Amino acid sequence: METPHNTPTAAVALKLAPPSLIIQPEEMTVSPAFVSISAGHLGLFHYEENYTNAELLKDIEQEKMKEYRFRGKLMKRAPKREYFVPGEIPPTYKWGQQTTNYPGGEEFSGKPMPLWMVSLKDKINSDFNVKVNHAIIIKYTDGMLHHAPPHQDKIPDGTDFFVLSFGTPRKFQLIKSKILQTNKRKKDGSYKVKKEPGDIFWEEYLSSGSLLRVTSKANKEYFHAVPKEKNWQGPPRYSLIFRTISI
After folding, report:
1. What is the reported pLDDT for 214?
2. What is the third-level CATH fold of 37-243?
């Protein structure tokens, strides 16, 4: 069966909305090596293939993932494992797991970052002038069972998150948000509104060894997702996500 996403092109392929819909970049501090890559869209996201050695897949495969529970039941989507900086207090990142899985809880399973992960953390901090202190590995082995529906990260304002991909590429989407009026009213009589995912703004099969930086601006104004894919197949895909989480 033909699987075009297993052989991504060497060049970065950006599927963008019309120019009138592109958010203009804000001034950011990055090293000169990154200014030329997707410079016109740096205010929203930054995607670079071959950011790190894809051979790190061998190290990631040695890490054991965990099935987390939510309200007593195993969570759907994909197994994962979280990591903190060695010698520092583990930060609490809430993605829907039970409170017993938080740092200090009886089922907390976070681990200190191994040396290869610390090196990646330090590289990101240096290249992008940030201070990431938390990481999660997510393992995708099934195109339908393992996915991430449209959502927005619960991270402090002004912080970005960084997605490094290893193994068989999976599609990543940035989705424009839309505001809908509900039937519920506020105390002042006006109707409450809610934010929902709308049209796809950008999508790409993230190649092994690539880095995708999703800025705070993009996270607030857009949803992101790893959609279900019926025909996706191949060896597992691992997503290594670095974030800055308040302690």
Report:
1. 92
2. Jelly Rolls (2.60.120)
